[in-house]
Amino acid sequence: MSGSVETQGIDLVSPHERYGRPRDLFFLWAGTTTNIFTVSYGAMLVLLYGLSFTQALAVIVIGNVIAYPLLALTSIQGPLTGTTTMTISRASLGTRGARINGVLSWLMLIGFEAGGLILVYYACEALLARAGIALEGGAQITVVVLLAGIQLLLPLLGHRILMAAQKYATMIFTVAFIVLAALIIPQAAPGASAGTDSLFTMISATSLVIVSGGLSWAPSGANFSRYLPANSSPLAVGTWAALGGFIPYVLLQTLGAAMATVAVPAEVELSNPLAVPAILSPAFAVPFLILVMVGLLLQNGTNLYSSGLNLQTAGIHVPRMVIVCIDSLICVAICIFAIQQEAFYSLLNAFAASLSIWLAPWVTVYLLDWVARHGTYHLSGLAIESHGPYWGSGGVRWSGMAALLGGMLCSALFTNSGYLVGPLTRLLVDVPAAAPDLSIPAGVIASALIYLALRPVRERERAARRAFITAA
């Protein structure tokens, strides 16, 4: 598997291919989350939500304490099953039902990949501008294609290379962000803003922290832990995965919130990650832009690896490497379009915020099903796509699917992602923009109640699964 293109897809990882230790997950997730996007989310809490630094710090801690245990819990099944998170979802949703999850997860990662590539392009453009090179027309397309080709390498080479790259990247980025903090913190004015007295605003800000971090990474949890030996400690697997994301998110989002309190000229928009050099020494501008590019290319490598696996779960029967290449081409097309549209990036952020409509109900159903079956799965049955033990009725296990769809409906009714405001959200306040984003708690509560209420349906599905196993 090392030194060549990895061909492993969603099929079960065999025992002789297992390697590594749970603590390796810390470096994977730390390397993935230690980038300028994380800093930007912290700045948005102050600049867009109007929180004080103290309020932002409270939201950062609370949001990440809620979010990253979700990544921990979805990572635990990897060593036990040897397959991906979306494949394990077949146990709760059915083989065909899980295809919906695969498509939604793929779309989510495509959005993040495109957003990352767009920002990488802008960082590259800024670097070239400092050298007196202006990008126009065909040159823009050429640069986008080259950058996409670079980010394609790691996910093609596979899990082992990706894990190694993230380990060393974590060390480099840690030093770089310590330097960045040393430059920003002396300029910060934490007491400059009184903040907000709106509980609704605090709830919406907390939702942003949750969905931008651990909740959006949860569908990829088992994708990377599945290569660990089957006897790996579940506690160690979950703890190292969660800490790898939690620690960078808390520290870098706090740095972003502090950065947002720095006095800057009116034309500088600190919610834009590439505006950071405006408050730094000119000597740090070039290293900063390089840091942005490398960090986001690595993050996109993680996303591309997972998105290829998710599309296989959706029923696309082509090698993972082909899907990775297709994803890259889609990202190139989106990026080329986006650099001509000034409003596109804000729309992309709104898309990311709306992901909680699906993510909150999905993770609720996934984890409740895991608890209900005491963490045990018919392993070979997870890989069967037609009339296997998790087939259900017509390929759908309706106890889980009804809970997922019902939760998504309730989540949509209470959402407020800026561009999408749910009808019940509008009833809470006169001004929709001031309404809270309750999509996460609404989705969690609704999907949990529906799942628990459908226990008789689940018992019939379990009986059918036992009958299939006995007959086999």
UniProtKB/TrEMBL annotation:
One of its GO terms (cellular component) is plasma membrane. InterPro entries: Pur-cyt_permease, Pur-cyt_permease_Fcy2/21/22. It comes from the Bacteria. The chain crosses the membrane at residues 26-51, 57-82, 103-123, 138-156, 168-186, 198-218, 239-262, 274-298, 318-339, 345-368, 401-421, 433-454. Signal peptide: none annotated. Its main location: membrane. It is a multi-pass membrane protein. GO terms for molecular function: transmembrane transporter activity. It is found in: Membrane. Keywords: Membrane, Transmembrane, Transmembrane helix, Transport. The keyword Transmembrane helix applies. Pfam families: Transp_cyt_pur. Belongs to the purine-cytosine permease (2.A.39) family. PANTHER family: PURINE-CYTOSINE PERMEASE FCY2-RELATED. This is NCS1 nucleoside transporter. It comes from Actinotignum schaalii FB123-CNA-2.
